[in-house]
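Workshop exercise sheet. Pairs work together: one partner reads the sequence aloud, the other fills in the structure field after running the prediction. Swap roles for the next sheet.
Pair: D.N. / O.F.
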Amino acid sequence: MTNDILKKIKQLPPLPESAMQIEAVYQDPDSSFNDMVKILEKDPLLTADILKAANSPLYGFSREINAISQAVGLFGMGTVRGFALASIVKKSFTLDLSPYGINNDMFSALSKKQHGLMISWCIRKENKLLGILSPAAFLVEIGKVLIAQQIISDGKQEAFRDALVELGDVEAAEQKVLGVNTPEVSATIFEHWRFEKGLVDVISNCQSPQKAKPEDQRAASILHVVRVAVPINGTITDASITAAKELITKYQLDMESFDKALENAN
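Structure field:
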């Protein structure tokens, strides 16, 4: 991690009280469905953001979700926590993703599409992992915001574009030009905000799941697959599906559920 990036992370504002309350409820083993609903209902703007996200066609629900209690009931506390944290965290950043050749809408769509594929793939057979995977899928790319800021401030836009063409891999280009990559920066951001260690570990090691703690390796593997399937431009292609399926085979994950999830993602 470079000193410049670390300085940017340390200058980030603290998370608002609503995020801290959501985390406290989620982490409390004695908390209930109703406790989460009550916290979310206190913030009308956050409620609206969550319901908008939950009603995305990416999740394949046939009827409209019009209440937070309904969203928590359908998705579970872990996934709705992901919706909430994504909404709160992204408002903490000024976005300029121009070094990556994408705009803010494309960046938002990328996170939503990765999350949609994640939920559709995992909601039945990997449901117990969604407490970590839901926020991880929404937030893993947030490190690109600070990396883009650093590329711009260093005047390295052209060098970064050249590295992207040469290497054909976003993380490799980041590493070559700045010496850091998106998962590393994202994980450090959430460590700074004192998110749970499992989430930080999964995001930090999603490119190399074998480096994660044993209990986090499956979640890191799933996140790796999703990021390969949905690349930075948000477009799922035959090539990205093929690469993702190679990883599914390598990590011994559920191929049948992945194929079904792709039907909603396209």
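Discussion prompt: The mean pLDDT is 90. What would you look at next?
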